[in-house]
Amino acid sequence: MKHTQIYVLAAILTAIGAGAFAYKVWALDFPLVPDERRTAWQVEARVTFPALGRPIKARLFVPQTSPGFTLLDQSFVAPGYGVTSTHAGPNTVATFSINRASGKQVIYVRALIDRSDVPDAPPRPPPAEATPRVLSEAGAIAADGLIKEIRARSADTATFVALLAQRLRATKREGAINILLGRLPSESRIIRTAVDVLNRAGIPAIMVNGVDLGRDSRNARVVHWLEVHVDNAWRAHNPTSGEPGLPGTWLPLWRGQAAFAAVTGGGGATTTIAVNRKFEIALSAALRRGEQLDQSLFRFSLFGLPLATQEVYRLLLVIPVGVLFLAFLRNVVGVKTFGTFMPVLIAIAFRQTELLVGIVLFSVVLAVGLLVRSYMETLRLLLVPRLAAVVIVVILMMAIISVFAYRIGFEAGLSVALFPIVILAMTIERASIVWEERGAREAWQQIAGSLAVAALCYLIMRIGQVEYMAFVFPELLLVVLALTVLLGRYAGFRLTEIWRFKVLAKDA
Fold first, then answer.
1. Where are the domains of the chain?
2. Cβ pair 39, 247 in contact under 8 A
3. CA–CA gap between residue 355 and residue 339 (Å, rounded)
4. pLDDT at position 49
5. Euclidean distance between the first and final Cα of the chain, in Å?
6. Model pLDDT for residues 81-114, shown as the tens digit of each residue
7. Is 301 helix (H, G, I), strand (E, B) or coil?
8. What is the Cα Rg of the chain in Å?
């Protein structure tokens, strides 16, 4: 009867998971592989501010189509607020308003960005006559002197901008530069000063603010650069060298020296920008089709979660695959490991440290921890204080390795802090107990088995197709669960034990 329940449960789980998977593939036209030919990102700005019980008006800049990038989709999340969108000069501005609000307010602006073959020149009209910002008397004198000097050495606008950038970023700054920049200028201060000098010289220039799409980030740093009007077109200039051109992953968000968000009727605004290259971006057509067929299907899906939360689930959803593989290696192959899920947790740490570096760092900390644990045993400490002492030593070892690695230029050594401290401490304790009760050979077998399983789980969870399938088709985890349940009833021989019974096989 129990066997029948197991098989029925596995069949039900498989039917539900496979049915949902088939519906997505055939009815909603979800592709089975990620579209690597198309690069797209989701940019999410989160603005928080306190409301003071008065009418609120919040002004936010929103992304728009720009050279090299196309705005595919845009959405706003601000419960209770009215939203209007207008064009203000070179920017698109969204205004959020509400008659009365109190407490913490959160506004989301989300944009779907894709690559495009837009001409280099932004499609913006030529500027009016440059109107430089009013400088102090000392600043005006310094700027005029700098303009005169650079004009004598430049041949055109491009060389003027490059020489200006060189002077503003010189290691040894002269008096005029110090007056304009101050003692410790920020990146935005340098760009603002370059804009002021160029406009004062009669060269139309504007400050551009954006983010680097080159890497995913939950809190992306805002980058700044120049746009200069040259040959009847706006040209972007590298903020470091002043030369024309930018990294291909720099996305402009807004132009000008104003803050990204401004709130009237509330407290100061705090902005966090998240950037993520999403697998589901390649599925945009299928997602839109699914939204039209059944809104609730996507309202309660992973695609509707905040961007930072989605990043967490990209990692969590591949863990069941690693756990299933671990169960197979332990119950069918017969690999010996410490604990049940410790190798999978170590494999997660390997995703950040990389495999070889992670194995070396793990082995070093484990070896030192075993020596310390052996010494603690001679002190006759109780279990909990002994584990606490091992945890303290493990943390100190991590700190020492990080400092030493940084000093010798081995940056990968800094990632030792990504290992789960409690798992390391429990592994050291378990290895010591096995060593004492079953001998050094058994302990080393379990240590080697744990590292081998962690490495194999890491290699499986790092496969792009596995991550894609787990996130886009999470219903397949029900099939993984069904396989795990069936594996739990396996009571046959383990592959590593076959050699123990080869004599019986010969006799038969």
1. 32-39+279-304, 312-472
2. no
3. 20
4. 92
5. 34
6. 999 988 888 888 999 999 888 888 999 999 888 7
7. coil
8. 30
